[in-house]
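Researcher: We're reviewing a set of sequences before deciding which ones to prioritize for further study. For each one, I'd like a predicted 3D structure that I can look through quickly. This is ABC transport system permease protein. If possible, include the structure in token form so it fits the rest of the review sheet.
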Amino acid sequence: MDDRELGRLVVTEGALMGLLGALAGATAGATATATLAGALPAGVVATAAAVAAGGVLTTIVASLAPAALLRRTPIGQLLTED
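Model: Here's the predicted structure for ABC transport system permease protein, in token form for your review sheet.
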């Protein structure tokens, strides 16, 4: 596995974790709104979707820094650190 593949793996993992968290949060928020309000307004659905997309984008951007650092550090050094 070369540095580019390893960086891509880090960013992909971050994106998937962000997607799962965003879906869980949006679902929980929509469920709570529907339970408390008795209905689920369309505006809440649109807001939940926008916030979920923002959450995924944030995790992707946040995973770019570790991916860049990973490319600059030799793999052997990473494997030998505790």
